[in-house]
Design a protein that fits this description.
Its EC number is 2.1.2.2. The protein is of the alpha/beta class and 203 residues long. It has six helices and nine strands; from the N terminus they run βαβαβαβαβαββαββ. 36% of the residues lie in helices and 25% in strands.
Length: 203
């Protein structure tokens, strides 16, 4: 299986997935890493692993549709079975999303449907939540609202601020995302309508 990963920054989720692919000898590999920020750290990291890495500066494109067209041309060149958004901080046009629906997933740092959008950890703390976490979901036209593949839960401590909670959630993301990708790689997921069914052996 051919995986393309889209990032905007560090790419710590990218690294977790890459290591899982290699360590567990999956029949899958990351064939390219693309970013909307040409200076994203994750691009340099990918190149150091020998993975093709392309930066597409969204600022040089006339509008969102033009950027999305350039991005999908790059993606299609790789013929991916799965497109993984990992810390990708761009809202994608409905046409772009429709093109990859059913084979594009994202990770969001909250227990969706709670706290879609930004500043999720501070909002969870402000709301007095006792748990928080991360969600892997299929990407649909509605931001952060696609069919949920997997979730990880962490406690919110009285002593937490956004950074301490973010760190605890991110550590779980690095466990959760490789597991979700593994289910996809081994065809252990079935998507019927808005429900994701795990059809394979437990991970
Ligand atoms: C993570 O919190 C992830 O949930 C969000 O982007 C953040 C950074 O991800 N989508 P990464 O370290 O760039 O993988």
């Amino acid at each position: 299986k051919r995986i393309v990963v889209l990032i905007s920054g560090t790419g710590s989720n990218l690294q977790a997935i890459h290591h899982a692919c290699q360590a567990e000898g999956w029949p899958a590999r990351i064939v390219a890493v693309l970013s909307n920020k040409p200076d994203a750290d994750g691009l340099d990291w990918a190149r150091a692993q020998g993975i093709e890495a392309v930066g597409l500066d969204h600022r040089v494109h006339a509008d969102r549709a033009a950027f999305d067209a350039a991005l999908s041309a790059e993606i299609d060149r790789q013929q991916p079975d799965l497109v993984v958004l990992a810390g990708f901080m761009r809202i994608l046009t409905p046409a772009f999303v429709a093109r990859y629906e059913g084979r594009m997933i994202n990770i969001h740092p909250s227990l969706l449907p709670a706290f879609s959008g930004l500043h999720t950890h501070q909002r969870a703390i402000n709301a007095g939540c006792r748990v928080a976490g991360a969600t892997v979901h299929f990407v649909t036209a509605e931001l952060d609202h696609g069919p949920i593949v997997a979730q990880a839960v962490v406690p919110v401590l009285d002593s937490d601020d956004a950074p301490t909670l973010a760190r605890r959630v991110l550590a779980q993301e690095h466990r959760l995302y490789p597991m979700a990708v593994r289910w996809f790689v081994f065809d252990e997921l079935a998507l019927d309508g808005l429900r994701v069914r795990h059809t394979g052996a437990a991970a």
